[in-house]
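Chapter summary example.
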Amino acid sequence: MSTTTPRAARVTSAPAARGGRAPRPGYVCLECGWTAAKWVGRCGECQAWGSVVEDAGPTAGPRTVAVAPPRGPARAITEIDVEAARARPTGVGELDRVLGGGLVPGAVVLVAGEPGVGKSTLLLDVARRVAEAGRPVLYVTGEESAGQVRLRAERIGALTPHLLLAAETDLGAVLGHLESSDPALLVLDSVQTVASAQVEGAPGGVAQVREVTAALIAAVKERGIPALLVGHVTKDGSVAGPRTLEHLVDVVCQVEGDRHSRLRLIRATKNRYGATDEVGCFDLTDSGVVELPDPSGLFLSTTAQAVPGTCVTVTLEGRRPLAAEIQALVAPTMLSNPRRTTSGLDSSRLAMVLAVLQRRGGVPLADKDVYASTVGGARVVEPAADLALALAVTGSAHDAPVLPGLVAFGEVGLAGEVRAVVGLRRRLAEARRLGFRVAVVPEGTLAEAPAPDGLTVLEAQDVRDALRLARGEPG
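The structure predicted for these 475 residues follows.
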């Protein structure tokens, strides 16, 4: 029996033979769209783990979607009711400042931060304030047991019958609690611990986090209730999980704070309902997280006498002026490479200021160790603190304090000039409110922002001029 292939079959297979091998499947990253010829566990472009999947390739024809009846007719924008979209205050003034006035019905807020920074305690306090107003609140915990949350609630005084507590890690169970309790606020701690049975993968994975977040957003927006989600962070401080998580939610808040300090700051890195340049200040105590409407006193030392090597500046955290004290210590060294140590300051800004003082200010620092720090664990990174840092270093090097009640702010350039900074009116008003009597500022400040009553403003053109004015020497 002959096994020769028929002529028709040979003709049909000829194009495939001439075309070479079949096309290999491609792979694409769901986060950034990066393509690869073979599967990899980590995207080579955005460095996301588990986001590379097989690309199905183009379809045979254009995709079409059947026309569906709309839920309602399109209306003029002037006829839209905005009262339902107004923000409701949470009772925590510092959090309302960051959110833009409070929680909007149907808004989803993601609160991220390092472990132990106080995220759960803060959100439990918010839940307690909403529940005390007579509205039910559903608090779902996936990391702790119900008893552990109850102990924390006793410590901060959050025991109220309208606060409903559930310990669940299944998405279906969470949605069931949401359906049965019909709360006015949902708090989920945390979104990385909840998993869906319909999606493969461990809790906290890319697919699980995306599915859980999308389901919760759809549920709360359908009911018109706000939701507060706790999110984990990675080693570099960014929100853990897929990058699309930050795009899905309405507000992303970052809780910052040193574990050795009581101060906690909340910033909004994304806010669809308000500005992202506000900051909320809190104090972490044994009884919970307490808001600080006036936190400037935490960043100032309590000593009454003038000490060489200290200077106060006024920084802007968003639109809020905060007074911060900078301390410097200059000591002789026997090392060939002197030490430059900072705490709460940018090391590169310190190196630049020291170079300007050495070259333009006539301050010998090449053979001395320099230590610079802030008081109270404050983080000062804006260029407006350059002048105060320069005055503190010079005062320690010459063992001469600045004038009593002096505050300074200004950016120091490489040519030794003192440049203007933003928010002059707010900085001067805050300095006057705190009792400072003298302010060393860049030249031209008085033309833009008149000096408040009781505050003497001295304008400096360069670093040498500022050093002279800070010591009280006549011009």
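To summarize the output: The chain has twelve helices and 21 strands.
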